[in-house]
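tokens incoming
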């Protein structure tokens, strides 16, 4: 082979090698949400898949249908670890149920990003979520403004043990106690991630407390349930309602005057950042331990 031919062959090899590096290594990242039946999680999935496409990662999206199927979520997470995925992103349905699973992922050296809702464990790389305490405080201040800083208030929680919504509820109740002493929380119920249960709970509140002037709901299914109860009782505008999350239905209820304000987070960005942080780690980077995303009131 002549020198000219060798030179051309060497150049071709270098070009092909560089092109291969530029494409990046395809990784498999499992993303396990709390549930899959609400609009919020569809938006999270869209963000996760967008990041997967951008950073050359195959996304395995799998979660229980309902957010209270705790055993099913454990099974899904454990199955992803057994597959030896390159990275794992998980939104824990309960702050304690995944402790053993996260220990197992750490032993397998699988990086974990916890997103949306925190865990009682330190066996994760990054926590990505809305600043939920601050979001709850925003809701308290908005409801106080709507109610003239006095009156009886009800809280429709999501589910006991759900870290994210518990932080919202804590931010709401503590802000009312500190800043608006004439606003009294007289009833607290949980929807258990089920709009029908949220509606029933809200109707119970409205029956037991006819002077109730305002309600805060801390999640999408809770908000849908309360909105239905207010409409069914003909109390739109009479009971001030601050809801959480944004769907087409909730926005329509706001336009109709059933909801006075929505506290809105960015589920697309939550999903995107959950996957992006794992890709940064797999590429040799060092993502932050915590990534707080701001909510806003609409």
């Amino acid at each position: 082979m002549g020198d000219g031919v060798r030179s051309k062959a060497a150049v071709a090899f270098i070009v092909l090698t560089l092109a291969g590096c530029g494409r990046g290594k395809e990784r498999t990242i499992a993303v396990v949400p709390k549930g899959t039946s609400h609009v919020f999680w569809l938006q999270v999935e869209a963000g996760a898949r967008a990041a997967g496409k951008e950073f050359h990662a195959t996304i395995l999206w799998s979660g229980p249908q309902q957010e209270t199927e705790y055993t099913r979520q454990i099974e899904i997470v454990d199955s992803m670890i057994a597959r030896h995925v390159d990275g794992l992103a998980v939104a824990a349905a309960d702050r304690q149920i995944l402790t053993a699973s996260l220990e197992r992922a750490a032993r397998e050296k699988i990086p974990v990003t916890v997103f949306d809702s925190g865990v009682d464990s330190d066996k994760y790389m990054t926590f990505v979520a809305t600043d939920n305490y601050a979001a709850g405080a925003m809701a308290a201040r908005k409801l106080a403004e709507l109610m003239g800083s006095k009156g009886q208030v009800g809280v429709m929680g999501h589910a006991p043990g759900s870290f994210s919504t518990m932080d919202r509820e804590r931010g709401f109740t503590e802000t009312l106690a500190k800043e608006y002493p004439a606003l009294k929380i007289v009833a607290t119920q949980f929807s258990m991630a089920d709009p029908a249960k949220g509606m029933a709970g809200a109707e119970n509140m409205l029956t037991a407390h006819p002077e109730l002037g305002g309600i805060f709901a801390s999640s999408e299914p809770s908000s849908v349930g309360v909105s239905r109860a207010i409409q069914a009782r003909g109390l739109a505008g009479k009971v001030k309602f601050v809801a959480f999350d944004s769907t087409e239905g909730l926005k329509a209820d706001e336009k109709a005057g059933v909801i006075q304000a929505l506290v809105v987070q960015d589920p697309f960005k939550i999903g995107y950042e959950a996957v992006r942080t794992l890709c940064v780690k797999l590429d040799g980077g060092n993502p932050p331990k915590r990534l707080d995303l701001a909510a806003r009131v609409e």
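note: The CA atoms of residues 115 and 285 lie 19 Å apart.
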